[in-house]
Protein backbone atom coordinates (compact mmCIF):
# COMPACT_ATOMS: atom_id res chain seq x y z
CA UNK A 1 0.00 0.00 0.00
CA UNK A 2 0.91 3.66 -0.37
CA UNK A 3 2.59 4.87 2.83
CA UNK A 4 4.12 8.17 3.95
CA UNK A 5 7.84 8.80 4.17
CA UNK A 6 7.47 10.47 7.56
CA UNK A 7 5.82 7.37 8.97
CA UNK A 8 8.42 4.98 7.52
CA UNK A 9 11.35 7.09 8.74
CA UNK A 10 9.82 7.52 12.21
CA UNK A 11 9.28 3.76 12.51
CA UNK A 12 12.80 3.02 11.29
CA UNK A 13 14.33 5.49 13.73
CA UNK A 14 12.33 4.02 16.62
CA UNK A 15 13.60 0.55 15.67
CA UNK A 16 17.17 1.87 15.28
CA UNK A 17 17.10 0.74 11.67
CA UNK A 18 16.89 2.74 8.46
CA UNK A 19 14.47 2.81 5.58
CA UNK A 20 16.07 2.61 2.14
CA UNK A 21 15.10 5.26 -0.40
CA UNK A 22 15.94 4.32 -3.97
CA UNK A 23 16.08 6.76 -6.86
CA UNK A 24 13.80 5.71 -9.68
CA UNK A 25 14.37 6.74 -13.27
CA UNK A 26 12.65 4.18 -15.52
CA UNK A 27 9.64 1.93 -15.05
CA UNK A 28 12.12 -0.92 -14.57
CA UNK A 29 13.58 0.91 -11.55
CA UNK A 30 10.08 1.21 -10.05
CA UNK A 31 9.33 -2.48 -10.59
CA UNK A 32 12.73 -3.62 -9.32
CA UNK A 33 12.65 -1.57 -6.12
CA UNK A 34 9.15 -2.74 -5.21
CA UNK A 35 9.98 -6.37 -6.08
CA UNK A 36 13.17 -6.25 -3.97
CA UNK A 37 11.33 -4.72 -1.00
CA UNK A 38 8.55 -7.29 -1.30
CA UNK A 39 10.95 -10.21 -1.38
CA UNK A 40 12.72 -8.83 1.70
CA UNK A 41 9.37 -7.99 3.37
CA UNK A 42 10.36 -4.43 4.24
CA UNK A 43 8.91 -0.96 3.57
CA UNK A 44 10.70 1.21 1.04
CA UNK A 45 10.78 4.74 -0.36
CA UNK A 46 10.64 5.42 -4.10
CA UNK A 47 12.29 8.76 -4.74
CA UNK A 48 12.30 10.90 -7.85
CA UNK A 49 15.02 13.51 -8.15
CA UNK A 50 14.68 16.84 -9.91
CA UNK A 51 17.27 15.54 -12.38
CA UNK A 52 15.11 12.49 -13.09
CA UNK A 53 12.16 14.80 -13.78
CA UNK A 54 14.35 16.76 -16.22
CA UNK A 55 15.16 13.47 -17.95
CA UNK A 56 11.40 12.83 -18.34
CA UNK A 57 11.09 15.99 -20.46
CA UNK A 58 10.47 18.01 -17.31
CA UNK A 59 7.31 16.10 -16.44
CA UNK A 60 6.75 14.64 -12.98
CA UNK A 61 3.36 13.03 -13.58
CA UNK A 62 4.24 10.02 -15.78
CA UNK A 63 6.83 8.53 -13.41
CA UNK A 64 4.74 9.58 -10.38
CA UNK A 65 1.68 7.76 -11.68
CA UNK A 66 3.72 4.60 -12.26
CA UNK A 67 5.16 4.84 -8.75
CA UNK A 68 1.78 5.46 -7.09
CA UNK A 69 0.27 2.51 -8.95
CA UNK A 70 3.15 0.24 -7.93
CA UNK A 71 2.89 1.41 -4.31
CA UNK A 72 -0.86 0.83 -4.14
CA UNK A 73 -0.59 -2.76 -5.31
CA UNK A 74 2.55 -3.54 -3.31
CA UNK A 75 2.55 -6.11 -0.52
CA UNK A 76 4.78 -3.80 1.58
CA UNK A 77 4.36 -0.11 2.51
CA UNK A 78 5.84 2.12 -0.20
CA UNK A 79 6.22 5.91 0.10
CA UNK A 80 6.96 8.49 -2.60
CA UNK A 81 9.59 11.16 -2.04
CA UNK A 82 10.68 14.05 -4.27
CA UNK A 83 14.48 14.28 -4.08
CA UNK A 84 17.00 17.15 -4.39
CA UNK A 85 14.41 19.75 -5.31
CA UNK A 86 15.76 23.16 -6.18
CA UNK A 87 12.82 24.39 -8.24
CA UNK A 88 9.91 25.93 -6.37
CA UNK A 89 7.68 25.02 -9.29
CA UNK A 90 8.51 21.32 -8.88
CA UNK A 91 8.14 21.57 -5.10
CA UNK A 92 4.59 22.79 -5.60
CA UNK A 93 3.68 19.76 -7.72
CA UNK A 94 4.65 17.21 -5.05
CA UNK A 95 1.40 16.83 -3.16
CA UNK A 96 -0.90 16.60 -6.15
CA UNK A 97 1.38 14.03 -7.78
CA UNK A 98 1.08 11.66 -4.78
CA UNK A 99 4.31 12.44 -2.90
CA UNK A 100 4.22 12.55 0.90
CA UNK A 101 7.64 14.15 1.25
CA UNK A 102 10.29 16.30 -0.37
CA UNK A 103 13.99 16.93 0.03
CA UNK A 104 14.53 20.62 -0.54
CA UNK A 105 18.14 21.22 -1.51
CA UNK A 106 19.48 24.73 -1.06
CA UNK A 107 22.81 23.43 0.26
CA UNK A 108 24.70 25.14 -2.55
CA UNK A 109 23.81 28.50 -1.01
CA UNK A 110 25.65 30.24 1.83
CA UNK A 111 24.22 29.38 5.26
CA UNK A 112 21.87 32.33 5.66
CA UNK A 113 20.39 31.89 2.19
CA UNK A 114 20.13 28.11 2.60
CA UNK A 115 18.27 28.70 5.88
CA UNK A 116 15.92 31.33 4.47
CA UNK A 117 15.05 29.25 1.39
CA UNK A 118 14.64 26.07 3.43
CA UNK A 119 12.47 27.78 6.05
CA UNK A 120 10.15 29.08 3.34
CA UNK A 121 10.02 25.64 1.71
CA UNK A 122 9.29 24.00 5.08
CA UNK A 123 6.44 26.39 5.83
CA UNK A 124 4.91 25.67 2.45
CA UNK A 125 5.48 21.91 2.73
CA UNK A 126 3.95 21.66 6.19
CA UNK A 127 0.89 23.61 5.08
CA UNK A 128 0.46 20.87 2.45
CA UNK A 129 0.99 18.10 4.99
CA UNK A 130 4.35 17.17 3.44
CA UNK A 131 7.35 15.86 5.40
CA UNK A 132 10.44 17.81 4.45
CA UNK A 133 14.16 16.97 4.48
CA UNK A 134 16.93 19.51 3.87
CA UNK A 135 20.68 19.40 3.52
CA UNK A 136 23.44 21.18 5.38
CA UNK A 137 26.99 20.47 4.41
CA UNK A 138 28.40 23.69 3.02
CA UNK A 139 30.95 24.15 5.76
CA UNK A 140 32.96 26.41 3.45
CA UNK A 141 31.46 29.56 2.08
CA UNK A 142 30.21 31.26 5.23
CA UNK A 143 33.65 32.27 6.51
CA UNK A 144 34.68 33.88 3.27
CA UNK A 145 36.11 30.70 1.81
CA UNK A 146 35.01 29.69 -1.65
CA UNK A 147 31.88 27.52 -1.41
CA UNK A 148 32.70 23.84 -1.34
CA UNK A 149 30.66 21.21 -3.08
CA UNK A 150 28.39 19.91 -0.32
CA UNK A 151 29.92 16.47 -0.62
CA UNK A 152 33.47 17.31 -1.58
CA UNK A 153 36.14 15.69 0.55
CA UNK A 154 36.58 17.94 3.55
CA UNK A 155 33.02 19.29 3.49
CA UNK A 156 31.31 18.31 6.72
CA UNK A 157 28.14 19.24 8.57
CA UNK A 158 28.89 21.11 11.77
CA UNK A 159 26.77 19.86 14.73
CA UNK A 160 26.20 23.26 16.31
CA UNK A 161 25.25 24.81 13.01
CA UNK A 162 23.02 21.83 12.19
CA UNK A 163 21.18 22.23 15.49
CA UNK A 164 20.45 25.89 14.75
CA UNK A 165 19.55 25.12 11.13
CA UNK A 166 16.96 22.50 12.09
CA UNK A 167 15.50 24.64 14.87
CA UNK A 168 15.28 27.74 12.68
CA UNK A 169 14.05 26.06 9.48
CA UNK A 170 11.58 23.61 11.03
CA UNK A 171 12.57 20.71 8.77
CA UNK A 172 11.65 17.14 9.69
CA UNK A 173 14.97 15.50 8.78
CA UNK A 174 18.49 16.51 7.84
CA UNK A 175 20.84 15.16 5.19
CA UNK A 176 24.35 15.31 6.59
CA UNK A 177 27.81 15.44 5.04
CA UNK A 178 29.97 13.00 7.00
CA UNK A 179 32.39 11.83 4.34
CA UNK A 180 29.71 10.60 1.94
CA UNK A 181 29.70 11.64 -1.73
CA UNK A 182 27.22 11.27 -4.55
CA UNK A 183 27.64 9.17 -7.67
CA UNK A 184 30.40 6.86 -6.44
CA UNK A 185 30.65 3.73 -8.56
CA UNK A 186 33.01 2.00 -6.11
CA UNK A 187 32.11 1.34 -2.48
CA UNK A 188 35.11 3.04 -0.92
CA UNK A 189 33.68 5.89 1.18
CA UNK A 190 35.01 6.20 4.73
CA UNK A 191 32.47 7.89 7.00
CA UNK A 192 33.30 10.09 9.96
CA UNK A 193 31.45 8.12 12.62
CA UNK A 194 32.57 10.41 15.42
CA UNK A 195 30.98 13.38 13.64
CA UNK A 196 27.84 11.34 12.95
CA UNK A 197 27.58 10.56 16.66
CA UNK A 198 27.92 14.24 17.53
CA UNK A 199 25.30 15.17 14.94
CA UNK A 200 22.89 12.54 16.26
CA UNK A 201 23.45 13.89 19.76
CA UNK A 202 22.87 17.48 18.68
CA UNK A 203 19.70 16.87 16.66
CA UNK A 204 16.28 15.50 17.49
CA UNK A 205 15.26 14.94 13.88
CA UNK A 206 16.24 11.79 11.95
CA UNK A 207 19.43 11.96 9.90
CA UNK A 208 19.64 11.02 6.22
CA UNK A 209 22.63 9.56 4.41
CA UNK A 210 22.98 10.56 0.77
CA UNK A 211 25.39 8.99 -1.68
CA UNK A 212 25.01 5.60 -0.04
CA UNK A 213 26.01 3.75 -3.21
CA UNK A 214 29.65 4.43 -2.35
CA UNK A 215 29.43 3.26 1.27
CA UNK A 216 30.70 -0.26 2.17
CA UNK A 217 28.38 -2.63 4.08
CA UNK A 218 30.15 -2.31 7.44
CA UNK A 219 30.17 1.47 7.18
CA UNK A 220 26.47 1.52 6.31
CA UNK A 221 25.57 -0.72 9.22
CA UNK A 222 27.64 1.49 11.55
CA UNK A 223 25.96 4.62 10.17
CA UNK A 224 22.52 3.16 10.91
CA UNK A 225 23.66 2.25 14.42
CA UNK A 226 24.95 5.83 14.71
CA UNK A 227 21.61 7.47 13.93
CA UNK A 228 20.99 7.39 10.18
CA UNK A 229 17.30 6.56 9.60
CA UNK A 230 16.98 7.07 5.82
CA UNK A 231 19.54 5.78 3.35
CA UNK A 232 19.48 7.19 -0.19
CA UNK A 233 20.68 4.92 -2.98
CA UNK A 234 20.79 5.85 -6.63
CA UNK A 235 23.99 5.07 -8.48
CA UNK A 236 24.26 1.49 -7.24
CA UNK A 237 21.07 0.57 -9.09
CA UNK A 238 22.44 2.04 -12.28
CA UNK A 239 25.76 0.27 -11.84
CA UNK A 240 23.88 -3.02 -11.44
CA UNK A 241 21.45 -2.41 -14.30
CA UNK A 242 23.97 -1.10 -16.79
CA UNK A 243 26.58 -3.73 -15.95
CA UNK A 244 24.07 -6.54 -16.44
CA UNK A 245 22.83 -5.11 -19.73
CA UNK A 246 26.38 -4.53 -20.97
CA UNK A 247 27.30 -8.15 -20.17
CA UNK A 248 24.12 -9.47 -21.80
CA UNK A 249 24.65 -7.52 -24.99
CA UNK A 250 28.28 -8.59 -25.16
CA UNK A 251 27.22 -12.23 -25.17
CA UNK A 252 24.07 -11.66 -27.27
CA UNK A 253 25.24 -9.31 -30.05
CA UNK A 254 22.20 -10.18 -32.17
CA UNK A 255 19.67 -9.19 -29.48
CA UNK A 256 17.18 -6.50 -30.54
CA UNK A 257 14.11 -7.06 -28.33
CA UNK A 258 14.51 -4.50 -25.54
CA UNK A 259 12.57 -6.76 -23.14
CA UNK A 260 15.44 -9.25 -23.29
CA UNK A 261 18.08 -6.90 -21.88
CA UNK A 262 15.77 -4.74 -19.77
CA UNK A 263 14.61 -7.81 -17.88
CA UNK A 264 18.24 -8.73 -17.19
CA UNK A 265 18.91 -5.18 -15.99
CA UNK A 266 15.78 -5.20 -13.84
CA UNK A 267 16.72 -8.49 -12.15
CA UNK A 268 20.17 -7.10 -11.34
CA UNK A 269 18.51 -4.12 -9.64
CA UNK A 270 16.20 -6.41 -7.63
CA UNK A 271 19.28 -8.19 -6.26
CA UNK A 272 20.91 -4.86 -5.39
CA UNK A 273 17.78 -3.67 -3.54
CA UNK A 274 17.70 -6.93 -1.54
CA UNK A 275 21.37 -6.53 -0.66
CA UNK A 276 20.96 -2.96 0.58
CA UNK A 277 17.90 -3.54 2.73
CA UNK A 278 19.56 -6.56 4.34
CA UNK A 279 22.52 -4.39 5.38
CA UNK A 280 20.25 -1.70 6.83
CA UNK A 281 18.67 -4.10 9.27
CA UNK A 282 15.33 -2.94 7.91
CA UNK A 283 12.53 -4.42 9.96
CA UNK A 284 9.79 -6.49 8.32
CA UNK A 285 6.79 -4.54 7.12
CA UNK A 286 4.12 -3.96 9.83
O1 LIG B 1 19.58 11.59 -3.20
C1 LIG B 1 20.03 10.59 -3.75
C2 LIG B 1 21.14 9.84 -3.18
O2 LIG B 1 21.93 10.66 -2.42
C3 LIG B 1 21.82 8.91 -4.13
O3 LIG B 1 23.23 8.98 -4.17
O4 LIG B 1 23.52 7.94 -6.39
O5 LIG B 1 25.44 8.29 -4.90
O6 LIG B 1 23.71 6.58 -4.33
P1 LIG B 1 24.02 7.89 -4.99
ZN1 LIG C 1 21.42 12.83 -2.63
UniProtKB/TrEMBL annotation:
Signal peptide: none annotated. InterPro entries: Aldolase_TIM, Class_II_FBP_aldolase, FBA_II. CDD domains: TBP_aldolase_IIB. Pfam families: F_bP_aldolase. Its cofactor is Zn(2+). This is Class II fructose-bisphosphate aldolase family protein. It comes from Streptomyces tropicalis. The lineage of its organism: Bacteria, Bacillati, Actinomycetota, Actinomycetes, Kitasatosporales.
Amino acid sequence: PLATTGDLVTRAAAARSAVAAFNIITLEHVEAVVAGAESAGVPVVLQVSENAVKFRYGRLRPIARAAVAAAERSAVPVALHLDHVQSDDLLRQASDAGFSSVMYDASRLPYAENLAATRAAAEWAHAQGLWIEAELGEIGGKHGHPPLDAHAPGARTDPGEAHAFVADSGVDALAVAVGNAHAMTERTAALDHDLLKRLAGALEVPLVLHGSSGVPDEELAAAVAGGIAKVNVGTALNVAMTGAIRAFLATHPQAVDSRKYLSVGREAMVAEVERFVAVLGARPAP
